[in-house]
Design a protein that fits this description.
TIM Barrel, seven-stranded mixed sheet, 16 strands, alpha/beta, 16 helices, Rossmann fold, 2 domains
Amino acid sequence: MPGPLIILAYPKIDHEKDYVYFWTPFSLLMLGKALLDTGFEVIIFDGNQASIDDWERLLSAHIERAIAIGISIMTGGGQIGHALELAVRAKGRPCCPPIVYGGPHVNVLPGETLKHPLVDAILQGPGQNSIAPFARALQGDPELLLQVPGLRMRRGGMVSGQKNTPRAEQLGRYPWELLDVERYVRDDPGIAPRTLNYVSSQGCVYKCRFCYELTYEGKYSAMPAGRLLDDVQDLHGRFHLSGLKFYDADWFINLRRSAEFADGLIERGIRISWAASINPNDVLKARKHQPNLMKLLADSGCSRLLMGVESGSDRVLSEIVEKDISTDGILDVAQEIASYGIRGSYTFIVGFPGESEAEEAATYRFIDRLRRLTPTPETRVHVFAPYPGTPLYERAIQHGFCPPDDLEGWSNYDYYRSQTPWTNDATVSRAKAHTQMVLHPANTR
């Protein structure tokens, strides 16, 4: 007999109209695992894969027995607006249970989020630490709500739970049965025809001052290499995957784990192309502690490494971003990556608060230098958008940026457009012109 039901919703994201790769809702898979492990039933609704009519049908079939609806929201991309639409539809039902919000936007603006009339509760911090205790508290003694990590809830007054640690519980294999996995397999031209996105860790140890990962306070949690290999091997076999694209903030923080994974792919005979993100300082550390790592990556099928370069100006890198590496160091790392036949995919940001026109021009010149490497790297240029909870958000306000002050305002926040008074449409157009991605068909392994 199934346990009490929790409905988890991942609202649609529409910030990049021409982006063909769906974001697998890993945040909800993590919550789903925590709930399933404690005896609850879970239904995941993904607004990127289903319509508002599908949401209405789901509510008609299941809302009467649901004890809560959980909605994940991030800043920008239209997701907040779509979340509010889902909540309106649910609140229109006479038997609507409490609607609890979590995710990146909640983590950085909890009080502002909770003010909204469509928000009954928030869970701040890693949701897998708090969702099961919250669900249990809804079933039993209301005093248990005071023990729920990261909870703030309106229920006959304000109820606040315990502090939620920024470190997540150890990540485990995902409950893929909650999704139609085949719908998330995509032809990624730079990796392989049957590529699946994957997240295997949370947090980052670096301190780039524009980055949301700072909210994890330097805490890093990751799926152990063996458990990750088991999951990848299972997915590879069941869905005939030829590619895997890791969306971890930095996949190489634990160099030993990285080497164990790459070595495990070879030992297990898992022939798959894969890509992951890496900080340039990880490569420098690997030279000391894992000197054969790059060769091992190439031998295991790693075809692309994504690296945030951010700027071609050493002053911007050191004084504004705090990247802890120079442009010469980045070029040296990029040359090493290319020497093993691995394609670099390098991202940049222009329009930082306090960045000069000459420094922005230096970024574009640096992109030209990188693109002389073989294989020719991908380059992607973003226009700086202030992100709540980061040091550069406060600096942007000092430079004249006026942020939204409610969920409706944030629902229109699109970080692929100019959001600051010192950038404009010309800044966006130039950034797009220097964004050059691999578009030819990927090679299969």
